[in-house]
Design a protein that fits this description.
Largest sheet: 7 strands, mixed
Strand order of the largest sheet: 3-9-8-7-6-4-5
Number of strands: 13
Structural class: alpha/beta
Number of helices: 15
Order of helices and strands: HEEHHHEHEHEHEHEHEEHHHHEHEEEH
Helix content: 40-55%
Shape: globular
Radius of gyration: 22 Å
Strand content: 15-25%
Oligomer: single chain
Distance between the termini: 51 Å
């Protein structure tokens, strides 16, 4: 190993620690849930997982996973087009398409892979991608793999988007790329307006709905349902690793012609192992559950309202919205890190987010609600936030 590189890395790591930007991993000694056991800490209430519907360790989900092992085995040891496609993969693709209101679906090992493989097959140097400034890193990386012209429009700024589209109106292929829900702020892309714009400019609309599938919209079908544009979004990428059980896996769902071409040309699909049948089968059962009742989605909504209302009443700077991602704005990186550490001592597990995950000067603690949280747990979190905020001078 180069001594120069070693010293450079060690120096950079030390600078991260001094600035409060160093990311430490806490070790969980229990299944994922509203309450978890953290090594060296003990039992805490978990407010920082993407386990929105509480399905990561749900008894019915665990039962389905056991069934899958017995029926389909553990892994495929192959890619889809060689000998890696089982009936369970096709059944899940059909169920996802039906749930999201699209024509077809293609599975990936993760949504990061889906975003990495969704652009390049359609784009050449005569194409254009116009992407929201706050899109997820996986969208950014997927765009980097193409030869297309790239344009970034200001976050949710439809006027700026149209100005960019005017510049490329004569390009034969244009893709507008956006998160459905932006993971650091919990705000939404304005999908009904985006659909109007993409139709006006004959563009393709791609939406990453990872923080929406299963619980946003009256029946949990995502941002397209929330904005009443089901069937009008050309490409939806999403994950099975958040609300839909929390394991792994992702997909692209949308127009059948686009999905068919991805099967032929999308590199993360063609050259990666097939999704484990255990995940495919279990996710299929999760979709059955969510199609039969909205109880978990409704409980999550209730918990979100309770927490947001309580934190505002205590005087916290909470970004407006109705999503279970609730950013508690602190602005100072060291304060965010220290506050998260102090809250852990109170039995509240949260994480401080700072640069490069969020812009410099926009540090925060991102709280994520779950359907599994009880009212008592939420009230305890609010009281603990107030106690530590006063101790650190965040609140008077």
């Amino acid at each position: 190993m180069s001594q120069f590189l070693k010293e450079k890395i060690l120096k950079n790591i030390e600078e991260l620690k001094e600035s409060g930007l160093y990311k430490r991993e806490r070790i969980i000694k229990s299944p994922q849930g509203a309450e978890i056991e953290v090594e060296g800490v003990g039992k805490v209430i978990n407010f920082c997982a993407n386990n929105y519907l509480g399905l990561s360790s749900h008894p019915e989900v665990i039962k389905a996973a056991h069934e899958a092992l017995d029926i389909w085995g553990y892994g495929m040891s192959s890619v889809r087009f060689i000998c890696g496609t089982q009936k369970v993969h096709k059944e899940l693709e059909e169920k996802v398409a039906n749930f999201l209101g699209t024509e077809d679906t293609i599975l990936y090992a993760a949504c990061f892979d889906a975003n990495g493989g969704v652009f390049e097959p359609f784009m050449d140097e005569n194409s254009a991608i116009i992407t929201d400034a706050l899109n997820h890193a996986s969208i950014i990386d997927g765009i980097r793999l193409t030869k297309a012209k790239r344009f970034i429009y200001n976050h949710c700024d439809l006027k700026d988007l149209e100005e960019k589209l005017e510049e490329v109106k004569d390009f034969p292929v244009k893709i507008i790329a956006t998160d459905g829900v932006f993971s650091m702020d919990g705000d939404y892309a304005i999908l009904d307006k985006l659909v109007e714009i993409k139709e006006k400019y004959n563009a393709i609309l791609m939406v990453d709905d990872s923080h929406a599938t299963g619980f946003v919209g009256k029946k949990g079908r995502g941002t397209a349902e929330k904005f009443n544009v089901i069937g009008k979004v050309d490409l939806i990428t999403t994950t099975f690793g958040k609300a839909l059980g929390g394991a792994m896996g992702g997909c692209v769902s949308g127009r059948k012609e686009l999905i068919e071409w991805l099967r032929q040309r999308s590199r993360p699909y063609l050259f990666s192992n097939s999704l484990s049948p255990v995940i495919a089968y279990t996710t299929s059962k999760v979709i059955d559950l969510l199609s039969s009742t909205t109880d978990l989605r409704d409980k999550l909504e209730k918990n979100t309202i309770l927490f947001r209302k309580g934190m505002k009443e205590k005087g916290f700077d909470v970004k407006e919205g109705d999503h279970p991602i609730v950013p508690i704005m602190l602005y100072d990186e060291k304060i965010a890190t220290t506050m998260a550490e102090e809250l852990l001592k109170e039995g509240i597990y949260v994480i401080g987010f700072s640069y490069p995950v969020v812009p410099k000067g926009k540090a925060r603690i991102r709280v994520q609600l779950s359907a599994n949280h009880t009212e008592e747990q939420i009230e305890k979190a609010i009281k603990s936030f107030k106690k530590i905020a006063k101790k650190l001078g965040v609140l008077k």
